[in-house]
Amino acid sequence: MQDKLSLMIPGPTPVPERVLLAMGRHPIGHRSADFQKIVKRTTQQLQWLHQTKGDVLVITGSGTAAMEAGIINVLSKGNTVLCGDNGKFGERWVKLARAYGLNVQVIQAEWGQPLDPEAFRAALEADTAKAIKAVIITHSETSTGVINDLQTIASHVKDHGTALCIADCVTSLGACNVPMEDWGIDVIGSGSQKGYMMPPGLAFVAMSDRAWEACKHSDLPKFYLDLAKYRKSAHADSNPFTPAINLYFALEAALEMMQAEGLEKIFARHARHRAAAQAGMKAIGLPLYAAEGCGSPAITAVAPEGIDAEAMRKAVKEKFDILLAGGQDHLKGKVFRIGHLGFVCDRDVLTAVAAIEATLQDLGLHKGSAGAGVAACAAALAQG
Q1: Can you give the CATH number for the domain in which 24 is found?
Q2: Which residue has the higher pLDDT, 84 or 383?
Q3: Contacts of 359 (CB under 8 A, 6+ apart)
């Protein structure tokens, strides 16, 4: 049956009908009073989501644009940065920082393992000359399904006294608690196609006062991603360049839905879906890829032993019109990933687990009792 595709990937994520309908409105002038009202309203909503009174700026671009903007606006040529790398996106920030001529010190962990906060503490404490100007962390490492301990790492950065904490929260914001001010995070980057329940196209950068102070001295090249321009415009309820107007309509609708649900319920829902997906996979006999207790609330990575993960993923799509994510780089064919981020309900998670289980049975690869995955998933959802 056509037009029944269900997205169970870490992005783009499913979009509510209310948000799609909002996008269908006629565009309005981006210098009009009507648009200014939307910018003012969405700015307040974004501050609520980030749990900050500071600036949260909107760029027409991807989550990578948000992170690049966050890095290049607070650092200068030759600065030393400490970057966590335990997956594809950690790797990306290392490459991005080096592309701008920054001196990058890398703290690594094996894919599937979380970053060690003690390694950051040791490196920061050893930096008596205060040469490290920023620590760059991926909170939810989408490629491996691992959630890193951003709170503890941010506390070590704060103790350093000089370094800024720059966090990729692309798949954690709107999925779990990220209180920017309470944790002392200086820069947060995120993207619309994740927990925001929107199509791709908008990027968000939240900045602390310390980040803005560093911005005054930054000499890295920038024009479209010059956040000082966005800040000036945002304070006038505007945007420095032509924005994606209809995505602003979607943003307002999506954030209204999130506010109606409430942060605590949003976080609890994602935690419940993580528990249900994990329970279902374990009951089927499929090992999780992320280390025990470190699974992301946005996505569950599964490493099926003796099974071609790509072939199984393809079969699930063909038989049930459910799209799962594959493994990246050396994990291709070895890992598949179940997205449970954003506009996802209990039914979606239960259906995905049932489809995986039915596919394995059909392929003669089911290692547990028939129906064990669905039963375990349903039990976890009931407990939540």
Answers
A1: 3.40.640.10
A2: 84
A3: 312, 315, 316, 319, 320
106-133 pLDDT, tens digit each: 999 999 999 999 999 999 999 999 999 9
Identify whether residues 196 and 249 lie together within a single domain: yes
- The answer to the question of residue 135 being in a domain is yes
Phi, psi of 108, deg, nearest 5 = -110, 155
On the question of pLDDT at 384 being above 80, the answer is no
Whether 167 contacts 139, CB under 8 Å:
yes
In a domain, 9, yes or no: no
Average pLDDT, integer, range 226-237:
98
Numbered residues of the known binding site for substrate: 337
| Residue 142, in any domain of the structure | yes
Is the alpha carbon torsion for 214, 220, 221, 225 positive or negative?
Answer: negative
List 32's β-bridge partners, or say none.
Answer: none
What residues form the annotated binding site? 337
* Segment 337-381, tens digit of pLDDT: 999 999 999 999 999 999 999 999 988 877 778 899 999 999 999
Phi, psi of 165 (to 5 degrees): -100, 115
Which residues make Cβ contacts (< 8 Å) with residue 115, sequence separation at least 6? 84, 86, 90, 107, 109, 137, 148, 149, 153
Q: Please answer whether residues 142 and 118 qualify as being in contact, where contact means their C-beta atoms are separated by less than 8 angstroms.
A: no
Which CATH number goes with the domain that contains 325? 3.90.1150.10
Q: Cα angle vertex 123, ends 118, 126, to 5°?
A: 120
Taking all residues of the chain, what is their mean pLDDT, rounded to a whole number? 97
**Residue 167 shares a structural domain with residue 256:** yes
pTM of this structure? 0.97
